[in-house]
Amino acid sequence: MRLKLVLVATLLTGLAGFAMFAVNVSAQGGAKAFKISASEFDPEHDCDAAAAWVKNIGLFFAPAGQTDNFAYGFLMHKLCSTDTSAASFGLVSGVKGEFLNTPGALGFDFKNVGNFTAHCGAGAPRFNVSMTDGFHFIGGCANGTLSPSPRGTGWTQVRFDPQNPAQAFPIVAISATINSLALVFDEGSDSDPNGSPEIVLDNIVVNGRMVVKP
User: Which domain holds residue 207?
Assistant: First the structure.
């Protein structure tokens, strides 16, 4: 497991440059907005590891000032074993230079309703974060603080505290700032008690701001 995490950490160093192209600025008062772009890693083409914003699988919810008329959800899956060198990603832009020093600074909602069973594992999905104090794994999903989502029936809210040693490995210094940030899904169905190889996320949170669509 440690070797796999090191591989993904190395990969994200290269992906950080790509993520910077996605940085955008809101027209409203010049405030920073943030965006999540799908990516994947499968150098040997051994696995279907993919991520994508998909219409009509998410929630019809958007915070004030936003709309989501198509109920987008962020689907992440890995259709092979956990040991296979492959992963899907959500590259987060528009957050460079921010602190991560409040409880619940990172999080998301995930779908677990109807015939859909979510993969909420100890290792994935998680946030991989490069900070000015070093590299951090925050999560995975099962290590977060879970509660019913107030935004939709059959959805679970997950929040992570970057200063909680049970949720951040290692903990983030309160004075550190973000270099790069990504969601990572690199576990297969063999690592999930429900045998699920996928998860649908929505309402992805960084420091109180929420992204609900591409």
Answer: 2-211
